[in-house]
Design a protein that fits this description.
Blueprint: H1 2-23, H2 31-39, H3 45-64, H4 74-81, H5 85-98, H6 110-126
Helix pairs in contact: 1-2, 3-4
Length: about 130
Amino acid sequence: MKLTAELWVRMEVLFKDLWGKRYGVPSRTNEDFLTWSRKLAALTTEDFGRAFDALEEEISKSVKAKQKVYPPSYAEFIGYSRPAAKCAIAAQQARQSEARPLMITKQATAEEIEYGKQQMSNLKGMFR
């Protein structure tokens, strides 16, 4: 809840009157505050930092484009906390590069080869 209370203060700075009018003051009786606290409980301080960096960048772009800026929902804030797509792709590629390909090392016996040929013939017969 402490991080959510800090989030509340920072959002009030970023969104002036919009935040307070929409979400009210942070307290244990404010349902919006409690919902945000529950939904953001799993986020780390690094996630919060990433989210605010992304949110401030989004605000900057909106201001440059002369678009109205609105406070995010908790779901949007969680989205801002996720690593950028290029970071996610790089992480996936790193995991895949560590994977070893499967290798077939056993030589099939003559009996297994004959059985495989019979099964292949049966399958071909299904498509005639």
